[in-house]
Amino acid sequence: MTRPFLVISTRESDAATQDELRSTLHLSGLTADQVVHWRLERDPLPPLSELQPENFSGFIIGGSPFNASDTEKSAVQLRVEADLARLLDWIVEHDAPFLGECYGVGTLGVHQGATIDRSYPEPVGSTWVTLTEAGLADPILAGVPQEFGAFVGHKESVSALPDHAVLLATSGPAPVQMFKIQNHQYATQFHPELDQEGLITRIGIYAHAGYFPPEDAEQLVERTRQQDHPWPRVILQNFVRLYGSGE
């Protein structure tokens, strides 16, 4: 690997951010020296001439407490959205590798004209994902079975994709679980970067954030301990394998 991946976080919680980076490295097979980690909620992106996005193998954005469909947004959220839109302008123009996990649906979706709303929320826990014919043929999903379990937990989702987007995966609760733009931009509604430890950590951190009744936290933790979803992480591993050459 000649160029690092840029891993972008948008979580104001230090514990959530550190755990998301831990699980991203662990599940992808990347090492710390193969990534540049950027806390976008804390550090604004510089002008692209300074960031030099062409020097990264690809871009990975994890989940977020921010929602594109929020009716009231803080100054930090508005600035994060503007920074990501500016970066996505460059990524889409250059057809650069991008993997947006959960929050990626909102960021890439909004950027490309998808309808993002609260029509298909999913509670914190597990869902069953089904690949479309396009998904079965896509290299980022190589080795992934047509149906698999994944961790989810989101308030918003895609209710309509633009015509130029390719639907790669769906589910009963959320009809758009994964889509593709051009050749190399991907977004998932589920979490490829999330393992049991990570979901348990987030349950504790976001117990009062409106994802579930706080009194259900202990039950959710126990349920998570009984679940393991190995297939979504293959997507993350494939992304690194496909684009990690830095070419």
Report on this model:
Helices cover 34% and strands 23% of the residues. The model has no long low-confidence stretch (mean pLDDT 95). The chain has one domain: Class I glutamine amidotransferase (GATase) domain (Rossmann fold, 3-Layer(aba) Sandwich), CATH 3.40.50.880. The strands form 2 sheets. Strands 2-1-3-4-11-10-9-6-7 form a 9-stranded mixed sheet, sandwiched between helices. A two-stranded antiparallel ribbon has the order 5-8. Helix 1 packs antiparallel against helix 6 and helix 6 packs antiparallel against helix 7. The chain is globular. The protein is built from 8 helices and 11 strands.
Uncertain ranges: none
Q: CATH architecture, please?
A: 3-Layer(aba) Sandwich
Spatial order of strands in the largest sheet: 2-1-3-4-11-10-9-6-7
Mean pLDDT: 95
CATH topology: Rossmann fold
Strand coverage percent: 15-25%
**How many structural domains can be distinguished in the coordinates?**
1
Class per helix and strand makeup: alpha/beta
Calculate the terminal CA-CA distance, rounded to whole Å: 9 Å
- Count of DSSP E strands? 11
